[in-house]
Amino acid sequence: MIQAQDNQRISVDLRGESLESTLWYLQNRTKFIFMYATEDIANITDISVRAKNKTITEILDECLEGTNLTYEVSGTAIVIKKRKTNKITISGWIRDASGEALPGATVTVRGSKHGAIAGLDGHYTFNIPAQEGLILTYSFIGMEKKTVRYTGKKTINVTLNSSSTEIDEVVVTGYQNIQRRDLVGSITTVKAKDILMPSYTTIDQMLQGRVAGMIVTNTSSRVGTAPKIQIRGTSTLLGNQDPLWVVDGIIQEDPLELNASSLMTEDLKNIIGNQISWLNPADIESISILKDASATAIYGSKASNGVIEITTKKNTTDRLSVNYTSNFVMGTRPNYGQFNYMNSKERVLFSQEAFNWGTPYGTEPIKQIYTYEGLLNMYLSHDISSEDFLAQRNVLETQNTDWFKLLTRRSFSHNHNISVSGGTNKYSYAASMGYSNSEGQEIGNDSERMTGRVAITIRPVQKLTINATINGSVSTNNGFAGGVNPMGYATTTNRSIDPDAYYQMKASYPYNSGVKSLSYNFVNERNNSGSKSKSSFMSASLDLKWNILDWLTYQFTGGYSNNNSTNEAWETEQTFYIAETYRGYDFNSVSPNSKEFGAALLPFGGELFTNNAQQYSYNIQNKLQFSKAFNNENRINALVGMELRSSTNKGVSNTVWGYAPDRGEVITLPTTPQAFTPITGSKDEGWGLLKKIYDGGWRKVNTTDNYLSVFATLAYSLKNRYVVNANIRNDASNRFGQDANHRIDPTYSFGFSWRASEEDFMKKYVKWITTLNFRGTYGIQGNAVTRISPDLILNQGKVANLYNRYQSTISQIPNPNLSW
């Protein structure tokens, strides 16, 4: 509405009009005539002005604010024309609330044709005429628009917030960042901040129960133990069943498997850790879980068990920031009130009722006073009187040993993290250190870890971004020797047993058939055995992104890692394990002149297993990504790349007999072949324990796995409704056979999705359905079995006594057809 007050002043009330229609309104209701070039004002829309009793010049000033136009008044003629100004350059980053880049986000200058589209790394830049009052508008699909008034700063970084629950966030798949709506495969993304739990020190434990289709199973209650993870079930019988871990686009290699068959080393295998034990959860930004073939095919022959892609934190601000966090967690100690277990009197009555009902024993109970069955056997054999029997039964009924109090404690852990970040528009940095210490519920089980990380981002020129990262970690885990399970013992052991007693346990010794039982005390067993794992990890990575064009980006990624571990497990001469396996009698219970002493393989000392392992690997990737939108209805995202990966594992394992840690860790000699005189059984060709030492006391491992891979992906979206995905990858490896027909054996996948909720008829007739998506995928996956070699394996062994010649054994025939 325009009302002419006089020749000088008017009142105007306009809403959402174009500049051209606004000028026509003013011309038709005043004495002024407007002259302008149509192309200069064609793109200026959304003019809103409310003026009361204002001059025409005051109204024009308000209408043209934030544009590159000005005007001149000559009598009753007003000429609208472009300003004659210098050019200015505006650049910056567009990210979401979590700091992830938003490729394809747009920035426009209100009232002009000027604008830019953010590249794959979220960076934008454009030149515009310099003028006051510029207003910039930032937008992205699924995000709230944001307007910023230009104040003269050449760098403007903007964070956009999600406008709804629409699935348009950027998903990190390791090799590329892509909008979720353009993906067909099954991918779940979680933010680390949403799953961090103070009671856990590794990210794999925190994923338990957080992702549909992922099963996280704790293999042990001990701290430092890596859980078992399965994504959508088991995919192989012979190969590795663990998912593939990827950190910032670099595949994490499997740790060196501990090759030891002794019962003593069973617990040691649990506390060594897994591929990401070195990673501090506080350094993680987000986690993407790739589940089906359509999502994992791009990773080739190692991804059939699913892929877990981890993105670490990067600095997203220009200001200096220092953060410190810590937490302390104390757990409860187990107690019998949590379980429906019998006390001592109930346990004795149970055994008495079983005897009265004539329930037979599987084997004759050992005669001893520490169990009701043994005490009853002594009474029935007239070894003790009825008075002694009743008196000792009363002792058993009132014993009520609290095994939980003796063997467990309140768990306690504390974690500390400090981080520093800052930078400018040319560079940024983020550094962090973390320390964690955990004492498990079982006395003797604890874990300690220290981590460090430095990440630097450099932007030397407008289209080039360089990221360099260094990670480090040292950790120590203390556990138990195999067969020593405090929690298991506490939950299954008769409470009528005296905790200080050395009761008899059934045993056998191959060189003395007369051995039927040996003394056992669990606390003694725990105190005289154990296992320890120490590891140090270091990795460095370099990531280079070059935005060749707004829609074309080249990326180079290189990484190197080195993982060293020292592991040991031991049992001393005072344990039941050593007595049963190598002596046949309790320590110091026979004289050196006895037959039992001569039949002992190891009369003094225990057993020590040591393992030193080193793993180093490198990963080199070259990728070219194409991402472009056409007329707001067609989007194409394509990527081609190659990857070179190598992993070398070296390890030395050694078993030493005669180990005496309480005597300065000296080694005592076993029984010599000449002095070894078994009471029963074979003399092992005269070798005694030396045969065991000779056959398997020392082992060395040196393996290298090389992979050369090429891959490509394609995602095409039409009208935000119809999406097609395709992935293909081919791996060449020294782990595969040399048959020419198997050298090209790719993994591939196809997928199609239809977002029915975007159809007009759905929006019109089924408004209550906000998201409806139909999806179908097909893919071929593979799993390389690294435990089997494609080549003939010849074991060149020891001298055969019968022939006095070296002997060799073919352990595996060649398999040229071996593939994934």
From TrEMBL:
Compartment(s) of residence:
Cell outer membrane
- What SUPFAM superfamilies does this protein's entry cite? Carboxypeptidase regulatory domain-like (SSF49464), Porins (SSF56935)
Annotated keywords: Cell outer membrane, Membrane, Transmembrane, Transmembrane beta strand, Transport
The residue ranges of the Secretin/TonB short N-terminal domain are 32-83
User: Which terms in the GO cellular component ontology are assigned?
Assistant: cell outer membrane
Q: How does it sit in the membrane?
A: Multi-pass membrane protein
Q: What top-level branch of life does the organism fall under?
A: Bacteria
Keyword Membrane found:
yes
Family classification: Belongs to the TonB-dependent receptor family.
Q: What is this protein called?
A: SusC/RagA family TonB-linked outer membrane protein
Which species is the source of this protein?
Answer: Bacteroides ovatus
